[in-house]
Design goal:
The complex is a heterodimer of chains A (about 230) and B (about 240). Chain A is mainly α. Chain A is about 85% helix and about 0% strand. Chain B has about 240 residues and is mostly helical. Chain B has one domain. The longest helix of chain B is centred in the middle third of the chain and has 33 residues. In chain B, about 40% of the residues are buried. Chains A and B meet through helix 1, helix 5, helix 6 and strand 1 of A and helix 4, helix 5, strand 1, strand 2 and helix 7 of B. Strand 1 of chain A pairs antiparallel with strand 2 of chain B.
Chain lengths: ~230, ~240
């Protein structure tokens, strides 16, 4: 066989292999069935629990965000009322106004934290829906990574809020509780207790979100095990 | 020990230039040949493992988890070395049963030497191709030695992408064929029988190996599962 013939036969063989490879890929990728994730019965059970938890938490987090917003308006009204009645409150007016302002700052922090938590829950919701629909692992892991990246920021905000609420509580405790502004002090005291309780719930929610993200990550890794395309000879 | 890498590199290049002539020229029957082949195989194992670890580092971070799980499931980084040993033994038994003339020592020397050159070469070639593919198409693939490709994302069915993938698979096919031909040339040279018998011996050994694969993976997992924390540290 001459060199030219060998080159021709070789080129023909490579071309035939290429055409066969392209044909096989064409047929394989033209499958009419949409991609679905291979969820086992156990995975589906776990995902079902995650579905329920996330749906519940998204709803309640949104409700909490709305009520926080209403509370913020109420506290702003309190600040305005205290400011307007400063002549009546005399020397205590400055301390009262300062405490009211701190309460408002704490409330705004809590609102910000709540809005971030709602965002995190929406990402969890996106990830769990993506898992059911068979979305690729890169997108799912990217979403879960966003959740992980935001969690420390939220944690840092909760620590700041904790400090602010404690500072306000200290200020309220040290303040004189005399008339005529006694009602305002009591009202601020109640707001502080409510804020403490809200912050505590937010910390718990953040912990749940982190655990949910971990569970979803494990599910993604299990479900989206890379399948072997080629392997030869061992 | 320090002389091993340069000697290995020289022989590696010499082998890849002309594999069929190499096995004819090297005296595989010499007593020290088997020892040297075993050393080369050990070196190739370390080299290939290092290459794969670097490859893992180059993966997108969000895909490292799924890949690590897949590797662990079938012990893809370690099981193929045991499979190589089992295949070499099976190939010798099959060759002897077909009236092959080579000794076990010669078969070990020959095939260990050849695979110590081939396995890093094919791994590197596939990794280079998958990196090019990643740059051009953007899909994340993971190459396992000696000739394994894990697809981590679905294939984009657009014609342009399929044309590119088809080129990759064509190269893969000829790499696998080259791998098999090198095995045939070596067995033929060692056992001095016809190519038909060589083909039968190699094919039957591969078939038996495929049947034994789950047992091999089980044994490797028993050995390497306790080392999992260390592997995770390296990953």
């Amino acid at each position: 066989m001459t060199r030219g013939t060998r080159i021709f036969v070789g080129t023909l063989a490579v071309a035939a292999t290429y055409a066969a490879a392209f044909g096989l890929l064409w047929v394989r990728t033209r499958s009419p069935a949409p991609p679905t994730s291979a969820l086992s019965a156990k995975d589906l059970e776990i995902l079902g629990l995650v579905d329920d938890l996330v749906t519940l938490r998204v709803g309640s987090a949104r409700t909490t965000a709305q009520s926080l917003s209403a509370q913020t308006s109420a506290i702003r009204a309190t600040v305005r009322a205290v400011s307007a009645a400063s002549a009546v409150y005399g020397d205590a007016a400055q301390k009262l106004l300062s405490s009211a302002q701190l309460a408002l700052d704490n409330q705004l922090n809590l609102e910000e934290i709540q809005s971030l938590l709602v965002g995190e829950l929406k990402l969890c919701d996106l990830a769990r829906r993506g898992l059911r629909q068979g979305i690729g692992p890169r997108e799912l892991m990217g979403t879960l990574r966003d959740i992980e990246q935001w969690a420390p920021k939220i944690e840092s905000l909760t620590e700041e809020a904790d400090l602010g609420i404690a500072k306000t509580r200290f200020g309220l405790g040290a303040a004189p509780q005399s008339l005529p502004e006694k009602d305002q002090w009591e009202s601020l005291g109640l707001i502080n207790v409510q804020q403490q309780s809200t912050l505590s719930s937010q910390k718990q929610l953040l912990s749940e979100i982190r655990k949910t993200a971990e569970v979803l990550k494990k599910l993604v890794e299990r479900v989206h095990m890379p399948y072997q395309v080629l392997r030869f000879p061992f | 020990m320090l002389e091993l890498p340069p000697a290995y590199a020289r022989e590696w290049i010499r082998y890849l230039r002309s594999p069929q002539i190499f096995v004819k020229e090297v005296d595989l029957a010499a007593p020290e040949a088997a020892k040297l082949s075993a050393k080369y195989l050990g070196f190739a194992f370390l080299l290939t493992s290092a290459i794969v670890l670097v490859e893992l580092r180059l993966l997108p971070e969000e895909l490292t988890g799924p890949v690590a799980k897949a590797i662990q499931k079938d012990q893809l980084i370690f099981s193929y070395w045991l499979s190589t040993l089992v295949f070499v033994l099976l190939a010798h038994v099959a060759s002897k049963s077909l009236s092959g003339q080579g000794l076990l020592r010669t078969t070990l020397a020959g095939l260990f030497r050849v695979y110590s050159f081939l396995i890093p070469a094919t791994t590197l070639t596939l990794i280079a191709l998958s990196l090019i593919q990643g740059l051009v198409i953007g899909n994340a693939w993971f190459v396992t030695p000696p000739l394994g490709v894990l697809l981590l994302e679905p294939l984009d069915p657009s014609t342009a992408h399929l044309l590119f993938f088809a080129a990759f698979f064509t190269v893969y096919f000829y790499l696998a064929l080259f791998f098999f031909l090198c095995t045939l040339w070596t067995l033929h040279e060692i056992h001095r029988f016809s190519y038909v018998r060589t083909l039968v011996a190699a094919s039957s050994s591969l078939l038996v190996l495929l049947l034994c694969q789950p047992l091999i993976v089980f044994c490797v997992r028993k050995v390497f599962d306790p080392l999992e924390p260390l592997i995770k540290l390296l990953l």
